[in-house]
Amino acid sequence: MSEKKTDIWMPLYIGEYVADTMTFTTEQHGAYMLLLMACWKAKGTLPTDDESLVSITKLPAARWRAMKVKVMAKFDLSADGLTMVQKRSSKEIAKAEKVSAARSSAGKAGAAKRWQGDSKPMANAMANESQTDGQQQQQSHLPTQVEPPHTSSEPGAVGGGEQSPTKAGEVCKAIRAKKVADVNPSSPELRALIDKGVPVETFEAAADICAKSKPPKGFAYLLGIVKRQLGEAAAIASGAGMPEKPWDENRSTIEAKAEELGLGRWNEHDLSVDRETFPQFTARVRRAVEQRQGVPA
To answer: Pairing state of beta strands 76-77 and 11-12?
Structure first.
């Protein structure tokens, strides 16, 4: 049986890919996927020169230079400094080659038994080989092999290396980028704040404060900042602690206070000699306010 090529398909862990590329634009996604496929075909390496990378990504040179730093941050320089590598790609390639070698050895062993005239093992080997060939042929027509996402602490990936794209994981990733390292995506306080609708940008701003503190503050301090900001925002929204708007600011507010007290609005249509002027009306409202509150209005 001929050996199967390992570069005709590559695994794509969708959940990890999405988590690792959360901030990519559509154009950056396209460039990154082409680089991942080229890296897989080249047994885990990429060239370092822009001319080759532009050719791989199919982008104009100016567009490539604009996104190069962000996209190539997913790769590392090799030990000899001649190529770019990605740890997860190298790991998956080694795994695929190991599986291919094992299948090849099993096939050769089955062939040897067939030549020895053992009919039963020959029949089993032929059945197993037919099933394996069918599976490999089906895979060869697919651009990627989709496997269930799994959690891994190893950064980078053929499609990432972080946990599945939960909101807590996204927030912790943003916080780590701001140099606050002791994050905990399972923190009940963090999840409660996220459930209240606190955006990633608020956590990032708090992380900036922690990183610039002397000495730098940690994750617990960061959560305290966010909770305090959330409380202040709620207080502002409810009006608690805010000064009341003066009731005698203008005619509209004075008449509104008069109606609240049951005095009614000022009768501007009264043209009698002893009619109540608006200043007199205001004074009457003021007296009513003082009587209700027991203090000067």
So the answer is: unpaired
